Predict the structure.
Amino acid sequence: MRNRPFSYRITLEADAMAEFDQHVVRRLSSMKGQFLDEQAYSAMLAQGDPLLYEVYYVERPEIAGELITGLSIVHAGKVGDEYFMTKGHFHAVLETAEIYYTLRGEGLMLMESPEGDWAAEELRPGRVLYIPPRWAHRSINTASQQDLVTFFVYPGHAGHDYGTIEQRGFRKLVIEHDGRPSICDNPRWRPPEVKTGSVARGW
């Protein structure tokens, strides 16, 4: 691991980082229960296990003061009417933020907070998205053919909480309606359990 200032190159022609330490691959099988149309999911999975997204990143110590940087690539496609997307996550350290800069493609960043707020921001080349602390986020590729490529930066100690989203889902879904992205309620979203008059957040 580098202990001096360093730089690296992103090769947009290949949609990859020229130098990286880790390459994470997420296929359809890793997204069980996240897409609304379970029949379409099962049918697609029966024909193969398509690649939904990839993440390249440079390793740094997972401590406060460090920054993790990398590249997220969400491929084009749909499961039923729902676009290919990332798993989505809160940060394990909830009070940490993240920045995304879109390099290629188009899509949406779907976000929500434990308090019940939600938001969706457009992802397109040249736009910078700042995600405040406490907001879960999921990248969604709404293009019909082109990859959605974003550069990200987050604190080294932030960590990832995928479990909350896997168990409850996002409050909203992004589906194709009349040829365009449309945001709707997720009928399978599970609210936090209420115990003795208080919300058990479990983040």
Summary: The chain has one domain: 17-199. The chain has two helices and 17 strands.
